[in-house]
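Q: Convert this sequence to structure tokens.
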Amino acid sequence: MAVTPIEAAGLRETPAAGGENAMSRMMEEPRLVGTHSISFEPPSLAVVRLRGPMSEADIRGLREVMNGGAKGHTHRLFLLDLSEAGQPSPEARRYMVHGPLKTPYRGMALFHGSFHTRTMAKLMMAGLSVLARLRDNPVALFGSEAEARAWLLERHRKITREARVEAQSA
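A:
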């Protein structure tokens, strides 16, 4: 039986709301950083769940885990759960935008949270993309995790297609 590119990449397509496919939920145990968590799902997804207020130490810790998890990857897609997120301190906001970033992001999907929280998070992520000179890193807001995962699966497919075309033309 032939293996699809999605299977070869380590993803499982699973039914989501509305009959769409979503990125797999195969993952390692989440790592806790304060009250927040981060986990990685094959082949390129980082999942961060924010719970409560965010200090600079929290953001530094999450960034260190994220940077470590990026080793050996050409890119990372980022899924951010804002359903229980509190407000970041001013120092945390500054570090989010100006702290060292070694993760080659290629798409960020934010979901849940209040309109204000999602809007502020999107503005900070867009600022991060500009200051860190990330290329081709769209940031999108979603009402549900299933919608965010479906969008990230499409991003993964697009990136994979582009890499295949680039490799063939080289």
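Residues 1-24 have pLDDT under 50 and may be disordered.
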